[in-house]
## 1
Amino acid sequence: MSEQTTFTDADRNDGVEPDMVDQNAAPASEATGAGVVPMNMIQALNSAIDVKMAEDANVLSFGEDAGYFGGVFRVTDKLQQKHGLTRSFDAPISECGIVAAAIGMGAYGLRPVVEIQFADYIYPAYDQIVSEAAKMRYRSGGQFTSPITVRSPYGGGIFGGQTHSQSPESLFTHIAGLKVVIPSNPYDAKGLLTAAIEDDDPVVFFEPKRLYNGPFDGWHEKPVSPWKAQDLAQVPTGKYVEPIGKARVMREGNDVTILAYGTMVWVALAGAEHAGVDAEVIDLRSLVPLDIEAIEASVKKTGRCVIVHEAPKTSGFGGELSALVQERCFYSLEAPIARVTGWDTPYPHAFEWEYFPGPQRVADALKSVMTGGR
Amino acid sequence: MDMDARMNDKMNKKNSQPLSLRVPEPSGRPGDTPDFSHLQMDPAGVVERPEVGSTPYQMRDLAFRLIRVLDDEGAAVGPWNPRLDPETMRRGLKAMILTRAFDDRMHRAHRQGKTSFYMKCTGEEAIAVAQGMILSREDMGFPTYRQQGLLIARGYPLVAMMNQIYSNAEDPIKGRQLPIMYSAKDYGFFTISGNLGTQVPQAVGWAMASAYKGDDKIAISWIGDGATAEGDFHNALTFASVYRAPVILNVVNNQWAISSFQGIAGGLETTFASKAIGYGLPALRVDGNDFLAVWAATQWAEERARSNQGATVIELFTYRGAPHSTSDDPSRYRPGDEHEKWPLGDPIERLRQHLTVIGEWDDERHAAALKDAVEQVRAAGKESEAIGTLGQSRPSVKTMFEEVYATEDWRLIEQRREVGV
């Protein structure tokens, strides 16, 4: 579990130019007072933790390489230097231990924010998350709670192979007692992470690492535009909260609804543009709780639905979305619901772009549902 | 021989004898005479008591010894004698008696069909009772399912325990957990998981939080010999050592994990206390049936934790006298009289003997204590059964959908309506 530098390099070399990290953006940990500055997603996440740590002495952050060094993706950069050794520190390579310690701290009354270096490493912590954090409030009749945030970079598009690319969100959406949040841009990343830290229940917070430095849209041979050009990268330096459980309409449209989250939001936008279809693109932002009202309203308006995620198709969250749309919008549907997903294979290194759902596949699915699925 | 031939020869090297797989076996099975010759024990009073500030390296020998205070004649001897006043010892004895009486009644209640499940702690009463008395309710205990003595020693209402066991309308945790998986925050008793080992690294995290805040509370956890094989235990020891967490990490070695003897968890190769050594933690190995030894060792670890010197691992050497649970039948896998012949005796009888020897207890008072315990349990039983045994009463079905989250989302509201509540 120590190959991280290889993959941050791979990330940088793969269409993400160094200037995508906005050198002019104020490091969030140095932000003071009110104001709005352009931030990439790393800086926005850093700012969320920084602002909460400054506000609440019960907030602390730890994880593998997450202390002095600030994390392999730099999300916790300078938090230790600013807030002190005991508030942002390195943890042993023990995901079970990291989450279990956070659970104990949460039961004590702290609000730990822990980093699992890659979502692919979260499995040793699975029992602690599923059997312990998720059940704590319920099984103790409300005596004990787990107000913890488990942050983890997830998803592909960085030539990370099977151990640095997975999207395990549906392993957590299935668990009663957990919330699962996935932002797609710097503004939401900060507002939602702030909400997660303040949430009284455990939140699994997946960060689409392919979006850390720019809104990657899946056209992997083209350079990625930097975040600073985006409205959603204009981030207040002070505190704000984006409520968990509310979707964001990224593009209004009338002909088909695309449900996506994480990197796939930008792929969906590119796919719709490529297909020339008037699609409504909904960024779910939180899978649990899910903004069912936004989904229902949109699909009833458009009569068609395409679901996009990176995770494998079988038992992916798209299956749940598809069932919900069918249950609630059947009489509005004019075509079968389509899913564009990762394949039912492990994540392959050499076949990154055959595996990773790209805008062409989204465009094909859109054309297919526009012609009634035939 | 040329190079290729030499390489070939090396690669084809044969063992002097074929390899064989070893699977550990206990010293006795049903029908056998119990054999305790393999047990590593010391006579009472001979093990040195190191200074609380000793380094784990200086005191590593203690991981392989057995701290005992009460000798066969009932005298308290040696440097670990905590010199308790008789009243404290009488309180401990009565709490152990009450714990056993409670177990007996609830085991019977299961047999009578009043509940679905029960687990006794017969033979292990000294551990949770002594440790529950030493630490305060402000400290947090992260128990397994055999530390009911902690609640009883702290005066938690027996009727509340029974209500939980019956999942009735007054169950403090609303009928959501298997019987005996108590949760009692105000009594320093963390919600029992039922998954083995998970609570140990949580105890470390809780203790880290107390240190982080600069508070003065400590944590204490328990795990069985069998579950030390879980990764959680080793993760806990790493974190406890690295962050010098103020926590007492108990391993209750009661010899049996359901039907697997402690050798299946590695107990034939080394002691469970010695697991601490590799993590740089101090280890104490203690006669868990000796109330005074448990008391003294816990006090040593408590002092170490409270003085910011970190965690201690304590192996409490005992014997699981009862079946694992009401679903278990030990006559299928261990000698029937193994408990009866256990060389370290019974914790209640040993403390009773000591108090009698020093003139602070007698048969009459013992009989009265037994009678009082049975009466307390009977009165609580009457009260709880009036509320209802399993199925006779229960919390409102609506509560099934509550406290999954702080606030119910639309799914739970819809599903509750679907059930019609």
## 2
Amino acid sequence: MRRIGKVLFLCVLVMGTALAGYADERIVNVFAEVDADEVGLLDTFKLTVTVEAENIKSIPKPEVPKLQYFSIVNESTRTQSSISIVDGKASRRKVISFVYTVKPEKKGTFTIDPVRIRYGGEVFKTEPLLITIVEGRKQGEEGRFMFRDGTAIDMEKLRNDIYVQVKLEKTELLEGEQLFLTYILYSRLDIDSISLKQNPSFPGFYIEDIYNATRLEYRREEVDGRIYTTSLIKKVVLFPLKTGSYAPEPLVLEATVIVKSDDLFDVFGRPFTFEIESTPFEINVKPIPTTTGSDIFSGVVGSLDAALSTPVYTIRTGESMACYLTLRSTGNLNVISDPGLILSSRGRVYLSETMRDTVEEEKTVYFVKKFEYTIIPEENGKLDIGTGDITYFDTAEMQFITLTAEPLQLTVTGEDIVQEKPIRGGRKVFGTATLQFIKGDTKSLKNVTASPLQSLPYFIYHVALTVITAALFLIILKKEKLEKNVVLLRMKRAHSSALKLLDTASKHIEKGDLSGAANITYRALATYAADKARLSPQEVTGKTVGRVLNSIPGIDASTSLKFLKLFETCTMIKFSTGRTEDTDLLRDLRDTSFKVINEMENGWIKNQ
Amino acid sequence: MRRLLFLIVLAAAMLFQIAQASLENAEIYNSANDFYTRKEYHEALDLYLELANRGIQNPLLYYNLANTYFKIGNTGYAVLYFERALLLKPFDRDIRANLNHVRSKLEDKIRPLYDEGIFRLLRTLFSFLSLKITVYLEILLFTTLIVLLLSFLFLPHSRIRLKNPIIVIGTIYTAILIGMISQYAYERKFPQGIILQKVLDVKSSPLVESETLFTLHEGTKFRLIEGRGEWIRFSTPDGRQGWILQESVALIHEK
């Protein structure tokens, strides 16, 4: 515990001292310079903005003024820092140089406006710079580049110290033959930055890029007793398309190197940007010396191997299997699209996929093209799979060679798949043997529509019929529903209607209108039976009443008999004038009607 | 009244004009037939093409035009016009026979994928079920359904008996309608075409310098998948796909 306390105390002490020491943060000096007063229009020059600061962790980036007749092609920074302790006070000094590679775009004398740096609310400015741009190239004059302070760079020596070498095996080759080029950067200098400015171009050649460097990997190599750092830039394979002499455009790099002068005090050197072009070379393309056997020439020049392979050797008819044809060549295999397979017995072959690969072996690149075929055998027995002939020009034997891959033999089991007639039949009597004669003359030649789907009559027919049917459905079904509702209402209200009529009959009896009372009682019974049977009251007569009562559900035989009796009595009273003065009879008739109707209603409700 | 009279006269004049044009077209057609019979195929072709250029879509014209193209050795166009004739008259046995005959002479023998058993049967059935036939079938079913519905409405006593036929016909009609609309949409989106160029290299991408995948010959049928500028992507009945220039092909269904 005590030990931890001691460590913590020491840490606090050190931090406190450090913080006390680094109290004053400030920018001490800002200045800008160019590495030459006069440069050529084809040259580049360096604009260096140097900032000296104390105790500042992060120095802000300078604000470069708008350069109207110049363009900035590259930016880099260099930092130097030192710590000094004076009177127990620690001070950290930092010098950062922002180096801009600038390319002039117009001739004349121009002023580069002050560069600004903003820090802690203050603005620091450099002095304006004057620079003269002249025609052509100034830096390369007499093989020397002059800096502003008078120091010079020997460009020839520089180009001996850093250069791009193109390695190629031969400069004379046949049309279509492979030429493998390797671009290597050799350097004995300290490289600050490097970038690809221009890729080489090869008009008249089919190009296969093998390698393009994304970052430089350095090795050491001795050339003429001098040690160089080398780095692979690019690998490319060319196939000449035509005969003739070619001088391909070079590869161009833009490099910034640190050059050191003979001055003893120039410890760090200074950056210098320039372009490095790959070494020039010439290619002479000759025609293929012989034409014998060139009739079915595939276009491949070099070596060529072909091999067939399959993962299965026994298969059933109708099943699919994969078969691979692998071509390996130093020539351009892009000229071969599908060599095709040949089957000894019936079956179907489809090219499913084509895969490509490159294999680099010492100074030659082999191209591999793998064709994946799907085979569906259709005939039982042995099946030999072979390839068609591929003719190429062999550069070792200097003659055309026709190549066939070693055939494969498979065993096919299962039943034969019989080929059927064409899908779209025709006249079987004629088959496909002859062409039917033209159609004869006509009296009128009208337009026939391929599909009436978009025609107006088709549309009208559908819309009209649909609308009419829908409207009829709506109207008729609604009407039916209404009628149904009325009938149902009548069924439900049959009881109350009958009782109301019987009440009216009572009133008629009280008034002494016995004939009217008999009539109304008759109506009450007939209306009740009709409503329950969903009929009109007129349909209920002495003859039909029995059948009507049978159609009403829930009425037992005794009630039905009582009703029939009542109905008969009412009918008799209605049509016999002599008995209508018997008030008691009518009262009795009315009361019995009440009872019978109530019984019938109860039975009907129970049944419902 | 005057207006109505004017409209009637105008309609009559238009009908007369159409009838007159139809007669004139028939004359040209018959003259072309005469040339064909005399084996003057190029003269016959000129007259048939004159009619086709007038916008006449007629199975007789297309059939004879296809025959003429075949006689002068242009199998690509022969297949194209036989296919067009078949669109207008799907059940014509002469058209089918001649199309089979021309196909037997084609360089590319492409066998469709899924060509065995039930697939073959379905393919044969669907080859007859062109859009025109589907539309006629739809009209027939639609009319039957309407008749059944009206019977249901006006014959209340037969309603129970009519219920099941209405459900069955209604279901079939719905299926046919959906099928017809899908077929129409599919044919519009992925129309079929014929290769007209004698030999055509099929590319892996819509660039002249791209890899040649395979080679096709005139008369081969394909289905268009997409178009990009002057290039089209297509697939053959055996499932192969690639890019070709659209100037070397023609679509069967005329827009």
